[in-house]
Amino acid sequence: VQLVESGGGLVQAGGSLRLSCAASGFTFDDYTIAWFRQAPGKEREGVSCIAPSDGSTWYADSVKGRFTISSDYAKNMVYLQMKSLKPEDTAVYYCAASGDMVFSPLDNYEYESWGQGTQVTVSS
User: Fold this and answer.
1) How many CA atoms lie less than 13 Å away from 112 in the CB half-sphere?
2) DSSP letter at 50?
3) 6-43 pLDDT, tens per residue?
């Protein structure tokens, strides 16, 4: 399983970014794919996840209405569209995958495969 994130960068508050996660080495629609983030000095937190098999999605309360997760079967890609970004969204964002049944979609212990992360910095 390989996950490669891209799309991070520096943006002003109120701006938008789209993160991409390129997945390979596994049957895409058998997995749950999630985005996590970790800010300096803070624990890693679940942001959003998607089950490509049926399109079910989950969001952390802190990003509901601002972030949208989506998947593209043909390209084995998962995207995180982020709008109305806030300085508190600044973090390294990670893509993660689980091939097992997931009971707590935004808990990091559910996921066994991780990407290397991409930095998102939101300036005030």
Assistant:
1) 8
2) E
3) 999 999 999 999 999 999 988 878 899 999 999 999 99
